[in-house]
């Protein structure tokens, strides 16, 4: 597991995970790593309180290193946005100083949510204040929580369509993509490969 003292290679692929609390950012990291390395929330409280860097080799390509960056949700119940911004800035400082690219963002959205109160643009806007203008084509919009949806065929697909045609249209027009995070290790790696492609 990476930490602030771990060395980051210049050619490492850095993926920052963003999204509301409970959307599955930390779950995604643990599945990708194949073991629990970051805390996952089970209660109602927001779980991740710190920016955490976790490094691993690309599955199927041991020459490529990937760094996954877990972040506290921007709707955190105990931290305000300036605090979170500051944490991300500090954690990414050594990378941005050395001009190491943030390769991609995966923005998580629980498909179980029956209202859309969060927009990826707001989260990405915060991120852009830290690293500069970020191209939409490097953002992967991932819907999560599919296993918890009673009627994924109808309800899930309907919600997906609304995201495509309305809420996330601007992002998609800019080159973002929407993919499902199925809550498995394979699916986590599928998304990592997609955001790096
Ligand atoms: N079934 C299912 N459960 C999920 C999925 N993603 C997250 N969960 C569950 O939702 C809860 C919260 O998940 P976390 O991974 O802690 O969510 P997070 O985005 O890291 O949340 P914060 O740390 O609070 O920002 C946990 O109980 C997970 O098991 C998913 O894709 N499928
Ligand atoms: Mg978390």
Automatic annotation (TrEMBL):
CDD domains: Ras_like_GTPase. Residues 15-94 form the G domain. GO terms for molecular function: GTP binding. InterPro entries: GTP-bd, P-loop_NTPase. This is G domain-containing protein.
